[in-house]
Amino acid sequence: MPQSAAFTNDQKEYLASRIKEAYPFLGQNQAGQFTNDPEESVFNTPLDDLCKEEVIKYERNGLDVWDVMQKNAADNIFPDPDDTFRYKFYGMFHVKPAQDSFMLRARMPGGVLTSAQFRGLAEVAEDWGGNYTDITTRGNLQVREIMPKNVINVLQKLGDLGLTSKGAGADNVRNVTATPTSGFDRQELIDVVPLARAMHHCILNNRDLYGMPRKFNISFDSGGAVSTCADTNDIGFYAVEVKESAGVEAGVYFRLQLCGITGHRQLASDCGLLLKPDECVAVSAAILRVFIEHGDRTNRKRARLKYLVDDWGHEKLLEKVQEKLTFPLRAIALEACEPMLIKNRQGHYGIHQQTQEGLNYIGIVTPVGRMSPDQMRQLAKLADRYGEGDIRLTAWQNIIIPHVKDDEISSFLTDLSKSGFSHSATSVTGGIIACTGSFGCKFAAADTKGQAQILSKYLDEEIELDTPINIHFTGCPNSCAQHYIGDIGLQGVPCKIDGETVDGYNIVLGGGVDDNRAIAQDVFQAIPFTEIPPMIKFMLETYMESREGTEDFAAFTRKRTSDELRAIFTPLKSA
Ligand code: SRM
Ligand code: SF4
Question: I need a labelling partner for 105 at 20 to 30 A (CA). Which of 307, 312, 561, 567 fits?
Answer without folding.
Answer: 307
